[in-house]
Amino acid sequence: MKKSIFILLVGMFGITNAQIPTGYYNGTDGLTGQALKTKLSQIVTNGHQDKGYNWNVFSSADRDKYYEKDNSVLDIYSENPTGPDPYNFSMGANQCGNYNGEGVCYNREHTIPKSTFDDRTPMHNDYQHLLPTDGYVNGKRSNWPYGEVGTATWTSKNGSKLGSSKLNGYGGTVFEPINEFKGDIARIYFYFATRYQSQITTFNYDMYDGSTFKVFAEPFLSMLLRWHQQDPVSQKEIDRNGAVYAYQGNRNPYIDHPEYIAQIWGTVLAVDDASFSKNLTIAPNPVKGNTIQVTGDKDLKQFKKAFIYNTVGQNVQTIENPFQNGNTITLKNLPKGVYILKTGELNTKFIVD
Length: 353
Description:
By secondary structure, this protein is of the alpha+beta class.
């Protein structure tokens, strides 16, 4: 089982995949932001072959070699990473037709709902975002966006949930996979936003903001970044990426190079309030003007720099020697929002109102 990593700031991920073809990412060195995303879009579009809508790739890409290691279908909606699965499917033997509950059959889950792109190809047949999943759970997920559930109306046997969103800024119905596969979903979504960059503005989805570059609306972008950080790339994803590449000729760059996500979309501070320092406070909070008073139970003069980050992990202000002449910091025209002050090992959250 992968271990979820809860850290303040996630740096570069260093997983090496020996299966990456030599030269596949030529031309990406030194690029960031829109330029990097556009180059990756060109790379993953070139060579992509639409092989139609079938079951073939699952037999090589989605067998359980990682948990029970029984070669059954690896279904993210039924897999129990900490114990026995509630049920298993045999590859090729339990494909859906009819079902009336969990554990009857598996089908093909479009992680990005096919209704959002009107069943168009090649996205309909793109196995970088097609996964084998329990048919009944797939039906429950329906076209709802992925999110984080506050009150569940239904829970699958492995703990995936459908219910009302607890994301600040979105109050609709969402589907939440278990923690083990949240990073997998996030990296699939970043792939899709890159592969179909030139068409994405014509797709209709609550998770999108209508832009070509950013693609994802808040609070979904921050959620996907957090999922990506907290659930790092697994061997399952690496192997699946290689199998899909062998099948349809393109790769998910964010499995091969997870650091590309931060270079394009930034990072989030993957912490909740319990992770902030209890001995560092800011007043007033919310901030009404351009100055804040910082206090702590340590000698703050020892800290040579203070950093202010926004909620997507971008450094919006750096203060040199912040506490040499007192504990007052002047903010530089920060827009309204939530920010993190970090100095040394101390960190705390404040709001600009």
